[in-house]
Amino acid sequence: MKVKYLYLLMVVATLCSCAHALPYQSSGINAPSSWGKLKDLTISDENTLGEQQWWKYFKDATLDELIQQAIIDNKTLGIARARVQEALANVAYGNASQLPEIDFVGQPQRGDIAITSRKPVGIIEGQLQATWEIDVFGRNLPRLAQAAEIVQYADASRQAVLVGLLSQLADGYFDLQDDKMQIALTEQNLKIQQKTLELIKAQQKGAMASDFDVERAQAQVSTTEAKLPALRSAYQTALNGISVLLGANPNRDYDDLVQHSLGLQPLDQNIIVAAPATVMANRPDIKAAERNFAASISNKQYAAKKYFPDISLLSYFGAEGISKATPIYPWLASLNIIEPVIDFGRIRSQINVAKAQETQAFLSYQETILEALQDMKNALITYKNEMVRNQLLRDSVNQNRRSETLAQQQFKSGFIGLLDLLVIQANLLDAESALADSDVALRKDLVHIYVASGGGWNIAS
């Protein structure tokens, strides 16, 4: 009968040791129905594959290749993966701690002891020891639930690292393309200005241009040429940054890969934008904040459970023998119960600490949601305004190109002076440079839209 009671106690304790993570915790913040007055946007409640692999929208094979390598080799992402494995190991340890711990202790000896009439004898002692914390009152359930929630938090944090990595890499790549275009534009305009300088020098020989004209044209050539070292430095710096994101030594040369890329491809103006509710559901930083809040609730529950008794079972069975003597088989089974009686407020203080941590986690959860909605709204506004700016800059470049062509013809015919030609050429360079910057900014703004909606967290990595 006693064995049956012990078996029943073991079954109850085992059932009590089963714990699961808390379900989704509401933030109390409702998602807005739309993104306000931003029209001409296709809003989708679906988390489509296109949103997850948003970089394919740019139709750039080089960017695709870089992203695949970064997903495999990036060190920060590797650290995030290792943290998930650490959290899983902690869960396994916690579950194992709910089961008995059984140890074998053996102690063979040989010596001369008084009870053997001063004759050396062999003594062998061995015993199995078992200790088990019987969690009848579920003291450890909140702790096990917290461990499971920390796993979910770590995985959501890994997803957030992945989204951030994709954003950093795409931004760096487009910055690299911008530097590449700026260098090409500057070199192109430098050649035009050098031809103009040669023309001025030829006119000087024919007394059709003064020394002042030559010096002014030479000054513009020098000013334009002085831009190249800074642009090349920015290009190399961006290249080194991409190397680190790819988990490679900055000395590794990715220049050939970038130089042979097709450059910026035309954008499809009809983009699909995630609805506010979809953004709140997909953002991994929101998921991480919610799981952190859930873990704080479990931590508070664990602190409150410390008022319950701590019950543990202690037992051992062994064998002891002396040479030529009959062995004996000692055994023991004991039940230890520890119940807090007077702790001078220690448990209450721990509960208050846990409550304060829960409040912090909840407010952080709410703040994360508000910041996520702000990120998305800002990204949409910036993208829409940059589209308008980009079209105006494109018109400006076309107008300046036509103006520069006419100015060259009129200068050669003597209808305008050198100063007019130099000003028009400078205006063209500024307009082309601004358009190149805007083309890149437009793509980076689009990246920020997809990243702000949590795009990229669910790709196979």
What does this structure look like?
The chain has 461 residues and is an alpha+beta fold. The chain has a single domain (20-101, 137-307, 347-452), classed as Outer membrane efflux proteins (OEP) (Up-down Bundle), CATH 1.20.1600. It contains twelve helices and six strands. The chain has helices at residues 2-16, 49-52, 61-73, 75-97, 141-205, 211-225, 227-245, 255-259, 276-282, 284-304, 346-413, 418-452, and strands at residues 42-44, 101-112, 120-134, 272-274, 310-322, 331-338. Strands 2-3-5-6 form a four-stranded antiparallel β-sheet, covered by helices on one side. It has a two-stranded parallel ribbon with strand order 1-4. Strand 2 (101-112) and strand 3 (120-134) form a beta hairpin. It is elongated and about 130 Å long. The model is unreliable at 1-16 (pLDDT under 50).
Helix content: 55-70%
Please tell me what the overall shape is: elongated
The CATH superfamily label reads: Outer membrane efflux proteins (OEP)
Query: How many β strands by DSSP?
Result: 6
CATH topology tier name? Outer membrane efflux proteins (OEP)
Helices, by number, come to 12
Report the radius of gyration as a whole number of Å. 37 Å
Arithmetic mean pLDDT: 83
Order of secondary-structure elements: HEHHHEEHHHHEHHEEHH
Q: Largest beta sheet: what is the strand line-up?
A: 2-3-5-6
The largest pleated sheet is described as: 4 strands, antiparallel
Structural class: alpha+beta
CATH class designation:
Mainly Alpha
Low-pLDDT sequence parts: 1-16
The CATH architecture is Up-down Bundle
Residue share in β-strands: 5-15%
